[in-house]
Design brief:
263 residues; alpha+beta; two-stranded antiparallel sheet; 6 helices
Length: 263
């Protein structure tokens, strides 16, 4: 078991890093949403028609929400384990109350631990992160991807779109004169022409979108669980604090006189 002085130093350092990483994750969820989306496009020109590389493309899904949340969880696990150990050490002998939410038992906590947990859950960074979790569009159909490029990752895909690329071509057509015999035209005869447009198939394409985002229900459920846990912590605080207050030994007036007047 760590000594308190060593644990305090570790928590001070991890708290600073944790705050930095929380802010970075909030920014990522808000601004780097393109990292959670990918696309794959193919194109094959038909015989006799020029290739069009602009119709081909591949953008890989850089990250997934699950990967970001997993990294956050690992960091918070180490930081909070030490943080709450400090608070428990500082409140040895204090009254404790069980914290149970939706059948999940989180142990018996003291008032100091509950206050720390309440403060932690109410941090602005978590509000920013959880509300900004990127979500997939409900307007599209999604299925877990079978693409080998994303094996082992929580990636979803839209159905593969297949189609034919088309274009219009101009064709000059000679107009027939019903008053003339095509086999005995005058020597100086100039036939009238017109231009007809026709649609031709020039190539075959496919397109598919990939996503490492959550769906809307996942984000909503996370926000619900956080709200319920916070409510349970507040209720537990009411229970554990329902005791007679004990006056502190600290001489507050003497302390303030020392600070302000040097007495």
């Amino acid at each position: 078991m760590k000594k308190m002085n060593a644990m305090l130093a570790v928590v001070e350092q991890s708290a600073s890093q944790c705050t930095k990483n929380l802010k970075e994750l909030a920014t990522c969820f808000k601004k780097d949403t393109g990292d959670f989306l990918g696309v794959k496009k193919t194109y094959t020109a038909r015989e006799g028609y020029a290739d069009d590389p602009s119709k081909r493309g591949f953008k890989r899904v850089v990250s997934t929400v699950d990967e970001k949340i997993e990294a956050l969880q690992k960091e918070l696990l180490a930081h909070l384990t030490d943080l709450f150990s400090i608070e428990r050490t500082n409140s040895i002998g204090a009254a404790k109350v069980p914290l149970v939410v939706e059948g999940h038992d989180f142990g018996e906590l003291t008032a100091i631990e509950l206050m720390r947990l309440k403060s932690f859950l109410m941090r602005e960074e978590f509000e920013q992160i959880y509300n900004a979790i990127p979500v997939r569009s409900d307007a599209e159909e999604w299925a877990r991807t079978t693409d080998s490029d994303y094996e082992g990752r929580e990636i979803w895909e839209t159905p593969l779109i297949k189609g034919v690329a088309k274009t219009s071509e101009n064709e000059e057509v000679i107009l027939k004169d019903p008053n003339l015999n095509p086999e005995s035209l005058p020597a100086n005869y100039v036939a009238k022409t017109t231009v007809k447009r026709r649609t031709v198939e020039v190539g075959d394409y496919t397109a598919q979108t990939f996503s490492g985002e959550w769906n809307l229900r996942q984000r909503s459920e996370l926000l619900r669980r956080r709200a319920i846990l916070l409510k349970a912590v507040i209720e537990a605080l009411k229970v554990v604090n329902d005791v007679e207050a004990v006056a502190s030994d600290i001489q507050v007036e003497a302390l303030l006189n020392y600070i302000h007047y040097g007495k």
